[in-house]
Amino acid sequence: MKRNAFKMKLKPGFEDEYKKRHDEIWPELSAELSAAGVSDYSIFLDEETLTLFAVQKLADNHTADQLPETEIVKKWWAYMADIMDTNPDNSPVCVSLKEVFHAD
After folding, report:
1. Which of 25, 29, 46, 104 has a 20 to 30 A CA-CA distance from 72?
2. Which residue in 3, 19, 20, 22 is the catalytic one?
C-alpha cells in the first residue's frame, strides 16, 4: 500500500458547494476509484488559502494512473471545473506532494 498526496485550488466563494458536491459523490465514481485501487481518500480545505489537500492510499497493484482516461472521471472534472482551478481538459491543477514524515 502506498500513500499519495497532492494539492489543488478552490475558487473563492465555493467552499460550501465543493463540500456539497463531494457529500453527494456519484456512486459510479466511487466504484471507479475503488476498482482502481484507491482507498482511504480524504480531502482537506485550508480555508485561509483555499488550498485543497488530498491524501489517499493506493493498492500495490493500483491502476489510478489510468483514471483520467475514464469517462466518469472526465464527467466529474467537467462538473467540478466551475469551482476549481483547472487545466484546459478540465482536470484539476494538481501538485504532487512529497512525503517527508509518517508514523503509524
Report:
1. 46
2. 22
